[in-house]
Batch of 2 targets.
Target 1
Amino acid sequence: MSRIRKRLAITRRLPEAVLARAVRDYDAVLNDDDRQLDADALVTHIGKADGALVCITDRIGRNVVEALAPEVRIISTFSVGTDHIDLEAARERGIRVGNAPHGVTIATAEIAMLLILGAARRASEGEALMRAGAWTGWTPTQLVGRRLDNRVLGILGMGKIGQALARRARGFDMAIHYCNRRRLDPSEEQGAVYHESFQSLCAVADVISLNAPSTSETRAIVNAATIAWMKPGVIIVNTARGDLVADDDLIDALASGRVGYAGLDVYQGEPRVDPRYRGLANTFLLPHLGSAAVEARNQMGFEALDNLDAFFDGRSLPFPVA
């Protein structure tokens, strides 16, 4: 780069290829021990850097934004989601914000498909049996699950990840129905059935996958009232955000069998997970692995750096948020 070398605060340990590029092109301030930083520590770590590369674990609330030094002019996040950043506060301070929207798509859709398969075929119970050394051999009725063919997959949030999941589910001969803020063009639908309301989607779906962002309309959208709309024994999968689920209501429904199985990769308040989930046999639980593929994480980092490069070169951000 020909421009003057800028100071960049990086809040978490990044993949090797991403870190190598960042260190090559910036005076990088690193979080060597990779510990999660609270508000005060974030402000101290970012200091007078020209920009910050942050992650979803960094809570960049109004208190943090308003405490940042005037030198900080851009925040680029290593994520597609931006609910961890107070965008309005950033706009008021004149701080640009960019995200990394494309790297997560395929990897997260794959994890959603893994959760659907694992839930339908009771994979977590089977693995627990094997790890405990308790398997005594094949029997006709042991851990009998469900096939996916001719089942209805209901997708809440038919963005890039939802559409990528739909493509994979069609390979298992599932019928695709979806609920979205807008109906897709027929070329994007690929035969999927559109529902204007979540209630309508719930009534027909054998499996419900949550792929929507966390907004005022979607938070706790899975609750006692909406579960009552669903088919008995429905499978619920969440790879979006933990706060789309009201934990008490889902746990009660799992315990009663009203919900047959839940496949969860994200949790409210993570990494603190409601311990009752671990005590339920009909849960398939992963530790937020949605984008945890080397290709995805590298692309996310490169997109976050592309925002920073463009900003400091005086160009438009390729992935602007605010």
Target 2
Amino acid sequence: MSQSNLKINLSTLGCAKNEADSENMLGLLQAAGYRVTASPQSADICIVNTCTFISGSTKQSLDRILEMVDEGKKIIVAGCLAQRYQEELFKEIPEVNALIGTSDIERIGEAVHWVNNNPSAQKSFLNASKGGYIASAKTPRLRLSGGVSAYVKISEGCNHRCTFCIIPQLRGDLQSRAMDDIVEEVRQLGEEGVKEVILVSQDSSAYGLDLHRGQWLLAELLRRLDLETEVPWIRLMYWYPAEVTRATLEVIAGSKRILPYIDIPLQHSHPELLRSMKRPINSKATLDMIREILPQAAIRTTFIVGYPGETEEHFAHLMDFVAEQRFERVGVFTYSSEEGTVAADLPNPVPEKTKKSRRRKLMELQAGISLTKNRALVGTTEQVLLVREIEDNLIGRTWRDAPEIDGQVILADLSAEKRQSLLGEFVSVAVTGADEYDLQAHCIA
């Protein structure tokens, strides 16, 4: 089939960093003359950009690949699963035609061309060295998230070696993107009408450590984005607790563009568990500093329950910590033993039933905290970015809410014409109701 008639579908699993890679793959394919379709059924070749961070994400990725097999499609598997299990994938799913590694995104056109001309063969397009891919501001991009929000990758890889995490084996050590290039991409996105840029990486707080004499450059990056771009909301994801600096927090405190939204995965509270995880144990001091400089900050964190050796005492410490800190947003994961990690070989595994029970208890505790915080907003006025329409409702987010992972604001009782005119805009709303995760409101401006 000719290149101009070939239709390509790409599905993305996993994190926002994968979405950024997918948008670049689609942009590269479109620039090369391929047709992009949102429908797997109508596609000639299906690309699955995969995740394998934990066993659940691995299963989800495999399920998506098998769906494409059932559709009888030519299949390219990209991303972390391809990097981690390249030999096993070809052997276990012989219908897979090609693999693209985490550092080989720019070879996607080569892979599609090869698959189109060799439909019954298999080929791996993986670099021998492991590492992630960082696009530049000049790399073609087809945004999946529409006109409201856009993810911008500021670095790739991670220098930390948390005992439960497989990512450094798949994405390599920290590679920071040039600051001028980040600023240029965000500037371009602002000119295109993007209302929110979300800065992502595996470890955003370490940005620049590899570029300039071992110095963290995140504060300088945020300062430049604040002064040199016009995007109304800039949100930073993935802080490492030991790398939060006063300088960075003070830049945010002095900015109306950089949101005081702190996404800082703590993983646990008990020092014994944190040492075993090879995680920082001084999170209380870090949280105190954040609240001193940014008293209005919305702090989001994640925890792992059921890590090997976690006792009832350890879990009770975590429950008390969450009750004391009263975070705005919390995610809880049950520990997943991943082959190739240090933690996979630790003694004293926690039974699955206990893991699930602990997760439920911690989520119930946080749900009560979230409900109280949300109810305190009833009667207030909030600025909301309206991001999508569901049935007869407009759905928006406050600055406290990142896409996909946090709560939302629901606006009902608007005419179809009004909904269409407001979609993608900032509006002022009066908050009229609240539950554990979402707010109800009506538009006042």
